[in-house]
Amino acid sequence: MNYVERFEKLGFGLFVHFGIYSAIGKGEWHLSTLFDEKKREAYCAQAKKFRVHKDWAKKLVKTAKTAGCKYITLTTRHHDGFSLYDTCGLNDFDAPHSACGRDLIREFVDACNAEGILPIFYHTLLDWTHEDYQNNFPAYIDYLVQSIEVLCKNYGKIGGFWFDGMWDKWDEDWQESRIYSTIRKYQPEAMIINNTGLHELGKVGHPEIDSVTFERGAPCFVDNSDRHRAGEMCQILNDHWGYAKDDCNYKSTKEILENLIDCRKYNCNFLLNTGLTGNGTVNPMDECMLKEVGKWVKMNKNIIYGVKACDITAEGADILKGDDGYYYAIVKNVEMALDENVQRVMDSKSVKVNARVTSARWLDTGEKIEVKRGAFNVKPFSYGRSLAVRVAKLKIKE
Ligand code: GLC
């Protein structure tokens, strides 16, 4: 199994946006809304107030594990140009020169390694504060490559790079081959990902790309005609990637679970985001949602890690094949039933698998399912539980 296949088996990751914008609480694009020079300076001066509590990384890793995530993709530098890592003299706009005075990426990587979580580095390509970005693009690329070199050399083996922002200047010469060969030189097994944004979902921008991206939706099978590539869909819990204190537009857990399933149906990973607050804590609402997702993931882990799409089809369900030799039928929109005066009673639902099913069980309860010629009824959840999606584990005679 190569590193791309290993990445695919991880299935579910936590995306983390964290930077000096986190303390302002108006999203990671806040700087782009400030046109007055004084306000922009005040934004950058936030670094002097950037205090991060000492266990932030350990706690973050714990949150990720509880949610069932196997990797974390963290913003080592976002569009505002502030780095959470020690840039080793490239500039002073980094965490060691901020009020916290520490290399936060070191803490992040150590916390991940201690718990068997794969650390992946999000890194911006565009830069709103570096002078060369507007005035001397080749010099900016030198700076970018040096930054990537720092990240490749100083933190041991890492899981990969997740680039973002090329869409800001499509026509510029980003010297992509140079960027990627720098990574291959120091980290031959690092995943190389470059977000193609909302308008180019699933596009392979360069031959070195190891995983294509589906930002906020519509995953599909990845074009593997020249070599094997993974796919990954990133999603937000509400409307912002970076923490926004006035954002209550949260998705439902059901919606998030359906996103996760849609990803697995196409062999894509799901990268679910949380924006940390200014001192590095996961905000309570996100923490709760991730915990709820984690409960479901734990019950149904067989369809998250080590599964693949397969040729077997079914009416009323999506079918995946597990590495364990079993098949899994995923049924969405399962309701609970008791009495019409307390709960809508689900219309009777059934599944018909186009294969010889010899036995079946619900993953969440372990209960046996009666199957006749590949068909079975979907039992609603009993009163007291409502998990939105049910998964049946199937033995199929091939
Ligand atoms: C977009 C946004 C960026 C965010 C990213 C996450 O590219 O510009 O702020 O980090 O999506 O996928």
Describe this structure in words.
The chain is α/β, with parallel strands linked by helices and 398 residues long. It contains 10 helices and 18 strands. The model has no long low-confidence stretch (mean pLDDT 96). Alpha-D-glucopyranose binds next to loops.
Topology:
Blueprint: H1 3-10, E1 12-17, H2 21-24, H3 37-45, H4 56-67, E2 71-77, H5 104-115, E3 118-124, H6 131-135, H7 137-153, E4 160-164, H8 176-186, E5 191-194, E6 211-215, E7 230-235, H9 253-265, E8 268-275, H10 284-299, E9 307-309, E10 314-315, E11 318-322, E12 327-331, E13 336-337, E14 349-353, E15 356-362, E16 375-378, E17 381-382, E18 390-397
Parallel strand pairs: 1-2, 1-8, 2-3, 3-4, 4-5, 6-7, 7-8, 13-17
Antiparallel strand pairs: 9-11, 10-14, 11-12, 12-18, 14-16, 15-18
Helix pairs in contact: 4-5, 4-10, 7-8
Bound molecules: alpha-D-glucopyranose.
Summary of the model, kept short:
With 398 residues, this protein is α/β, with parallel strands linked by helices. It contains ten helices and 18 strands.
Question: Notable features of this structure?
Answer:
single chain; 398 residues; alpha/beta; 8-stranded parallel sheet; 5-stranded antiparallel sheet; 10 helices; 18 strands; globular; binds alpha-D-glucopyranose
